[in-house]
TrEMBL record:
Composition bias type Basic and acidic residues, residue spans: 1-12
Extent of the signal sequence: none
Catalytic activities: Cleavage of hydrophobic, N-terminal signal or leader sequences from secreted and periplasmic proteins
Record-linked InterPro entries: LexA/Signal_pep-like_sf, Pept_S26A_signal_pept_1, Pept_S26A_signal_pept_1_CS, Peptidase_S26
One GO molecular-function entry: signal peptidase activity
GO biological process, one term: signal peptide processing
UniProt-recorded name of the protein: Signal peptidase I
Species name: Luteococcus japonicus LSP_Lj1
């Protein structure tokens, strides 16, 4: 009887503690699996940000109404950009005068791993008008911008005010030849854009500061991801398809002539 009772007690003890150990083990296992999934997702997100695409928040109205303030845009790192595309690029030479408030340290971590869109405190977004070797001129007798002699119809993207009137392609007359490894960029809201035009007298040689190094480009903007009522995708405007390639190799130094327009 004693041995039987003792055996029953041992069996009862195993029955009372076994389920507790099993539950704890399952919880630990579940937490481990969850941690692995989270870490894996963060690693994948970081890799996608580094090699595939990245999100940015638009901080200003220089690209209105194509891009509005606080739009979240997707930039592709796998797609080559070309004349006419909207691109995000690193500030080439202290173009940014006032910088938006930066995120907290936790927010910066979120940006780094791709969970949060970049606030772009040292990035700009503009439309590429001229590539290396291109001759960009404004404005002709009809008030149009031209590239390599081909007039651009920019009505599809230039900013229109509340009264429906569209901004001029440029209030500054100029003619430039883009040097090698550089590009000439402009905002779609030309009256509010601090772009290549305002730096045409700056740099060494003269005007070099106006031309953005191609190497600073993060990639072309391919879509607006948020807010929901702004979701759209982008392609190169049709008017740029008619622009011929330059006839001469891109020069080492830019050609810059201001007051070169013929329309005014």
């Amino acid at each position: 009887m004693g041995e039987q009772t003792s055996g029953h007690d041992e069996h009862s003890g195993a029955t009372s503690t076994g389920p507790s150990r099993g539950l704890g083990s399952r919880i630990r296992s579940g937490l481990t699996e969850l941690l692995v999934v989270i870490v894996g997702a963060l690693v994948i997100s970081a890799l996608l940000r580094a090699f595939v695409g990245q999100m940015f928040i638009i901080p200003s109205g220089s690209m209105q109404t194509t891009l509005e303030i606080n739009d979240r845009v997707v930039v592709s790192k796998l797609t080559d950009f070309k004349r006419g595309d909207i691109v995000v690029f690193e500030d080439p030479d202290n173009w940014i005068v006032s910088r938006p408030a930066e995120r907290s340290q936790l927010g910066k971590v979120g940006e780094t791993i791709g969970v949060l869109p970049a606030t772009g405190t040292n990035h700009l977004v503009k439309r590429v008008i001229g590539m290396p070797g291109d001759r960009v001129k404004c404005c002709d007798a009809q008030g149009r911008m031209s590239v390599n002699g081909a007039a651009l119809d920019e009505t599809a993207y230039l900013y229109s005010g509340p009264d429906g009137s569209q901004v001029r392609p440029s209030d500054t007359d100029f003619e430039v030849v883009v040097p090698k490894d550089r590009m000439f960029v402009m905002g779609d809201h030309r009256d509010e854009s601090g772009d290549s035009r305002i730096h045409l007298q700056e740099g060494t040689p003269k005007g070099m500061r106006a031309f953005v190094p191609v190497s600073t480009v993060i990639g072309p903007v391919v879509a607006i991801a948020a807010p929901l009522d702004r979701i759209t995708t982008f392609s190169t405007p049709d008017t740029f398809a008619a622009v011929p390639e330059p006839t001469q190799p891109a020069p080492d130094a830019p050609t810059v002539v201001t007051g070169a327009g013929t329309g005014r």
